[in-house]
Amino acid sequence: MFELSTAAVVYCAFVAAVFLGLWGYYDRRDHRRFEGERRKTVFHCIRCEALYTAPSGTELCPCPKCGHENARLRF
Q1: Confidence class of residue 5 from pLDDT cuts 50, 70 and 90?
Q2: Which residues contact 40 (CB under 8 A, 6 or more apart)?
Q3: What is the structure's pLDDT at 27?
Q4: Which stretches does DSSP call E strand in 1-75?
Q5: Is the same domain home to 32 and 44?
Q6: pLDDT tens sequence across 25-67
Q7: CB of 54 within 8 A of CB of 36?
């Protein structure tokens, strides 16, 4: 049916496609899973001079040291 060299090329292409498919799947899954953790909003406390972060989209957040509520930093 197939020659040995043709079968070897088809097999290698199949294995490469499987590995590329698995790599793409896990890469996208990990990207979605950790994107929320990587995106942070930075705050600077005007009372105690502390820098801290909060989840993305937060406009006001209390300082973890002194409890003063601060607005996010804008760059």
Answers
A1: very high
A2: 53, 54, 55, 56
A3: 96
A4: 40-44, 51-55, 60-62, 69-71
A5: no
A6: 999 999 988 887 788 889 999 999 999 998 888 889 999 999 9
A7: no
What single DSSP character describes residue 73?
Answer: P
| The pLDDT value given to residue 75 | 74
Q: Let me know whether 32 and 1 are in one domain.
A: yes
Q: What is the pLDDT of residue 38?
A: 82
Q: How many domains does the chain have?
A: 2
Q: Could you tell me which of 45, 49, 73, 47 has the C-alpha nearest to residue 59?
A: 73
Rounded to 5 degrees, what are φ and ψ at 14? -65, -45
Same domain flag for 19 and 47: no
Helix or strand run (H / E) with residue 22: helix 4-38
Strand, helix or coil for residue 72: strand
